[in-house]
Amino acid sequence: MEITLMIGIIITLIAMVVAIDSSLEGFFIFRPIIVCPLIGLAVGDLETGLVAAGIVELAFAGITAVGGVIPPDAVMTSIMTVVLAKTTGQPVAAAFALAVPFGLLSQFIGNIKCTLLSLFNKTADKYAEECNLQGIMRLCYFGIFLTVAIYGILTFASVYVAQDGLVKLVEIMPEWLTHGFSVAGGLLPAIGFAMLLRVTLKAKYMPYLLAGFLFATFIPIDNILPVAIMGLAFALLEYYRTNTVSKGGESDGI
Prior knowledge:
By secondary structure, the chain is mostly helical. It has 2 domains: 5-200, no CATH class; 202-254, no CATH class. The chain has helices at 5-24, 32-42, 46-60, 74-88, 92-117, 121-129, 133-161, 163-172, 175-200, 206-218, 225-246. The protein is globular and about 60 Å long.
């Protein structure tokens, strides 16, 4: 599939809207589980977008910024995973591995942006001392505008301008290398989820993990919806149990 100019503009607009939410963290539509299906709709393949959403979201589930350690950009990785899967014909897992460098590039540019914005710290301190709310708001809007502009330019250049070069690059890759990307892309979600479990998993939650593993592995099911419903049931059970204990029992004495 070829990314036309119109599709490239649509994807760029999606990236710019997502960039606003990424700066404000208001609705969390910048998560891969939202971005990938949106890009899938833009390229006319929602199924690929949904598959990519599951893979990329799992990979980034346990990855977060800690201090000065900034992970690859999930938004750009999500966009390029779907785009590369459509333009190169590679499996989604392989496209995900190929898209990670774009996330790293976006992260690198983001670091440069944040370094440049630090030059306005003294101006922000001055506005704060003067209680100049309009000045502070202008600085905030400038930061958001710069972020949106960077996402727009980088997305359009990667999705539309460079698509021919990316397709040719994948075509000249030997089969063993593209297979390696597929394997790596399949492993990354497991690594991301393992990192999440390393932080969140506690001994008291082990029964839920074992029950879910038993249900998903040994009971024949056609899709993961029953597993998701059972997970929701476990979450509600733990939520109400915790609230009951914290309140010292039910208020009606039962």
